[in-house]
C-alpha cells in the first residue's frame, strides 16, 4: 500500500546512485589527504608540526626533526589539544586530594650567599653617604658596582631582588606625574562583612575520623556564576532582548577574572588557611562566564555562599554613561598638539590623568561598575579515588580545547542574534586603561597615540571567539601540585621511558629557566618550508604515523609484560604464604 499524496503533488523520487565514472561519483570518494589527517589524529600525531633543524656541534651533522605545534585548541590541532587536556587532567588529579604539603620550605642560605648580601648592604650604605655629600661621580660608580653584585647574587642561586632599584636606574617606572593613586579599602555598605583571620601556611584540608577509626580526607567541587541580566529561555536567549542588560553583561565578562581573584583572597582570609584551587572558566548557555573549581580540602557550604555574596570588584574608571562619538564620527589626532581632539570644535579631549583626578576630587564619586557573583553557588564534596572524582575532572576540563565562542554553538537565528548583540556591546566596552574605546566616550586613554582605532581595539576581550573572556581560562593556584606544567610533561615522558626501559644517558637536559645542566651538544633553529632538506608535509606525516604506531605497539607490549610480571609476583607470594601456613 502506497502512502496517499495531496492532489497535484507527486511523491519524492527515490535517490539514485551516481553514475560510475561521473563527477558526482568521483566527489563521493574520500580524499586521501583527509584520510591521512584522520589517521594522524587517531594515532595522536600533530597535524601541523614545526620543522626544526638540529645541528650536532661535535660532528656538524644536521637533521630536520618535526616537533609538535603545542596548540591548545582542537580547531587548530586536535592531537596536541587532546594531549594538553590530558596533561591538565593529570595536574588537577595530582594536586586535588594531597595529604601533604606540595612545596617544602626554602633551603638555608650558604655562607657565600650571606657574604654577597652583606657586601650589597655595605654598597647601599656607601651610596647613601655619597648622595648626602652630593658626590655624584661616586654614586655612578656605586650604582655600577651594585648592578654587578646583584647579578652575582642571582648567579649564586638566590631568588628575587634584595631591594627595589633606585629611581635613577628604574627604566620601567610609570611616567604618570604625581603620587600613586590609592583607593579606600573600606567595604561597601551593601556588602556583608567577613571575618578576617591570619592565613596559616598550610594548604592541606581537614582530616575526618569515622566511628570505626578509619580516616578520610575529602575535597570539594565548586561552581561560581555571575548575576542575572534578565530572564532567559532554555536555549540561553533572553525572553525580552530589549530589556536584557547587555552592557552589564559585557562589563562583568571583562572584569570576571578580577572578581575571581578577590573571591579566593576573601576565602583564604575568612578560613584562615591557604586554600588551593584548580579550575576552568567557560561560558554558560546564556554566554555569561562561569567557573568550575576543584578545591583541596573541605569548606562549609554556607561559608562559600557567604564569601561569594560578600565578594565584589569595583572599577574606578571614568564614566561611560554617554557615548559621545560613534564609528561614523570619531575624534581625530592633532599632530601639532600630539593629542586627540573633537572633530568639530577641535578642543582636546579629557586626558586620562584629569579624568581620574576628577573622580578623586569628588567625595560622592561612585565606581563606574561593580562586578558581583550571582545567587547560584554550587558546591559538593568529592571523595578521592572514586569515579565521581574522575568524572568531575573530566567535567572541569570539558571545554578547555575549544574557543570560548565555540563551547555552545549557535544553531538558531535567536541564538545568533543574542551572540551578535553581546559582541556589539563588547566592541565598544573599554578593556584596559589604554584601550582605544575610551575615545568613544570623550576620554583619551593612558599613553594615547595616533595609532589608536576606536571600536577596533585588538584586545582579546573584543573578539567574537572570546565573548569577553580575554585572560587565562585555566586557573590553578601556585601551591596546587608543587609543579609547573613543564614538570608534569617531564613526568609523563619519564613514565613512558621507564616503562619501555629507555635511559636518558647522554641526553641534553634543560631546566625551566632555559639553563642547561649538561654540556650543550646540539643547536636548534627553525627550518623554512621551502628549504631543500625539508620534505613535503604529507611525507613527514606518514613517517610520524609509522613511528607513532611502532611506539604504541611497544608501549602496549610493555604494559602487558608489566601486568604479567605483577601477576606472577602476586602468585608467587600467595604460594609462599600458603606453603608457610601448611608448614605451621
Automatic annotation (TrEMBL):
It comes from the Bacteria. Residues 187-203 have a biased composition (Basic and acidic residues). Residues 1-23, 153-212, 560-584 are annotated as: Disordered. It holds the Pfam family RepSA. This is Replication initiation protein. The lineage of its organism: Bacteria, Bacillati, Actinomycetota, Actinomycetes, Micromonosporales.
